[in-house]
């Protein structure tokens, strides 16, 4: 099982015998530096597209690799993981605002926090188990 923490949310995945493909279902990840993110994708040889493989209508411009939404100037593109799951990369250069118009900073996980565990629980539960790395 793979657990991915994004901000205060988590995505849990489990291995299965047969992959079930579900087009159009995806999650989005906020990117701090748009140009650097695209440059890194290019460097790694990862293809990206504004159309999500034809799953969505593109908006904002005529670049086939990335789009920009006119109302927020949000930048977006789609990539696929090795299993073909769709991931949207987004960048909001104008930031977030409250309904009162005040800027709201995005939370940054610089200290890499984790969920608090009951002291000794994991050690006790796995004391007889063989540990592999």
UniProtKB/TrEMBL annotation:
Lineage: superkingdom: Eukaryota
PROSITE patterns: VOC
InterPro entries according to UniProt: Glyas_Bleomycin-R_OHBP_Dase, Glyas_Fos-R_dOase_dom, VOC_core
Domain VOC: from-to ranges: 1-92
Gene3D superfamilies: 2,3-Dihydroxybiphenyl 1,2-Dioxygenase, domain 1
Pfam family for this entry, one: Glyoxalase
Protein name: VOC domain-containing protein
């Amino acid at each position: 099982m793979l657990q991915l923490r994004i901000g205060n949310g988590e995505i849990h995945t489990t291995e299965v015998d047969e992959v079930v493909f579900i087009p159009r279902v995806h999650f989005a990840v906020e990117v701090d530096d748009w140009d650097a993110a695209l440059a890194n994708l290019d460097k790694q040889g990862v293809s990206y597209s504004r159309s999500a493989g034809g799953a969505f209508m593109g908006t904002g411009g005529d670049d086939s690799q990335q789009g920009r939404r006119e109302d927020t100037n949000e930048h977006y593109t789609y990539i696929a993981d090795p299993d073909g799951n769709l991931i949207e990369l987004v960048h909001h250069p104008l930031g977030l605002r409250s309904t009162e118009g005040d800027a709201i900073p995005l939370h940054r996980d610089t200290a890499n926090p984790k969920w608090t565990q009951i002291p000794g629980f994991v050690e006790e539960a796995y004391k007889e188990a063989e540990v592999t790395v």
